[in-house]
Amino acid sequence: MPSSSPLPSVLLVGCGKMGNAMLEGWLKHGQKPSVVLDRHDHALPSPHHHARTVADIPADFTPDIVIVAVKPQKADAILEELGQHFSNPVLLSVMAGRSIESLTKTYKKANPSANPTVVRAMPNTPCAIGAGITGLYAEAGTTAEQKDQCDALLRSVGETVWVEQENLIDAVTAVSGSGPAYIFLLAELMEKAGIEQGLPPETARKLARRTIFGAGALLDHSVLDASELRIQVTSPGGTTAEALKILMQPDAWPKAVSQAISAAAHRAHELSS
Ligand SMILES: NC(=O)C1=CN([C@@H]2O[C@H](COP(=O)(O)OP(=O)(O)OC[C@H]3O[C@@H](n4cnc5c(N)ncnc54)[C@H](OP(=O)(O)O)[C@@H]3O)[C@@H](O)[C@H]2O)C=CC1
Ligand SMILES: O=C(O)[C@@H]1CCC=N1
Predict the structure, then answer these.
(1) 75, part of any domain
(2) Core-most of 92, 133, 218, 235, by most CB within 10 Å?
(3) What is the pLDDT of residues 134-163, one digit of tens each?
(4) Is 179 in the pocket of ligand 2 (CB under 6 A)?
(5) DSSP one-letter code for 47
(6) What is the structure's pLDDT at 3?
(7) How far is the CA of 81 from the centre of ligand 1 (A)?
(8) Is the beta carbon of 178 within 6 A of some atom in ligand 2?
(9) For the chain, which ranges sit under pLDDT 70?
(10) What is the pLDDT of residue 198?
(11) Which domain holds residue 74?
């Protein structure tokens, strides 16, 4: 649960879909004066500050944590620039794939004496409504206080789990970072199939969305395994059993979900450098 003390101050670099999802939650929970660096306009409540470039960051601003939330393929220039501005920050990267080694190397490129302490985090967009889940990994040498500060930020917008090996962040990315997209696809497909069965589009949309919401909420409340909750819906000889005969074919969902998550993890690995 979020603590009542103010959240650490941050320099949030990149306030797009993921950065903004986290920022909304942080602002609600009360955050020390922070700066958002993004080339697009952002109306921030006082005393927070929006900067379009590194040069716009107030000279006396030293954030507790520098968070990098730009695309991993486009991060090099801004990382190099930040390395010249903040020498020894806690650098919290939410970028998919980019390894601690690669982040550190790029950060030090224009300022070899820079020495960031890198923590990697993989949140997801439900952070926007406080229902996120974030996996974290900290490089060796990160202090307990630095880890606590990162954890507090992400815990304020959902739950957190820490992993013991950096490469497991790729698995987190594939399961929960990208995961909401799999569920949104399911919503799209259920809605479409409902329309094919003759339901009015608005009714199909409502049924699909509320079913996914309700099933998620039940999973969240229940101590039972997902498989047990599935069995509770599945009357012998009934309708669900007929649907699951198709979905649970080894070549259907079991294979597709495994392959999809493996492909996402593989892509994260490709983005490491
Ligand atoms: N979207 C998601 O669900 C998740 C994303 N992530 C990670 O979060 C990161 C951001 O993803 P996402 O939010 O989707 O991306 P977005 O492109 O939506 O957000 C990035 C933002 O940063 C801006 N930006 C990029 N470079 C600069 C710069 N040099 N100076 C100023 N502004 C800049 C972009 O502007 P412009 O668009 O003009 O380039 C954009 O507004 C990625 O690394 C991704 O791997 C992690 C978990 C989930
Ligand atoms: O698709 C991506 O690469 C990012 C990382 C996880 C979710 N979105």
Answers:
(1) yes
(2) 92
(3) 999 999 999 999 999 999 999 999 999 999
(4) no
(5) T
(6) 55
(7) 17
(8) yes
(9) 1-4
(10) 98
(11) 10-169
What's the structural domain count of the chain? 2
- Same-domain pairing of 88 and 197: no
Q: Check residue 1 and give its pLDDT.
A: 46
| The pLDDT value given to residue 5 | 78
Indicate the DSSP class of residue 217.
H
Query: 253 alpha carbon to ligand 1 midpoint, in Å?
Result: 31
Smallest CA separation from ligand 1 atom 17, residue: 16
Pairing of strands 35-37, 90-93: unpaired
Contacts of residue 91, Cβ cutoff 8 Å, sequence gap at least 6: 65, 66, 68, 103, 107, 116, 117, 118, 119
* Residue 149 within a domain: yes
CATH code assigned at 82: 3.40.50.720
Same domain, 217 and 127: no
Q: Rounded to whole angstroms, how far apart are CA atoms 53 and 55?
A: 5
Q: Is 165 domain-assigned?
A: yes
How far apart, in Å, are the Cα atoms of 82 and each of 21, 104, 166? 23, 11, 23
Looking at residue 240, which CATH number applies to its domain? 1.10.3730.10
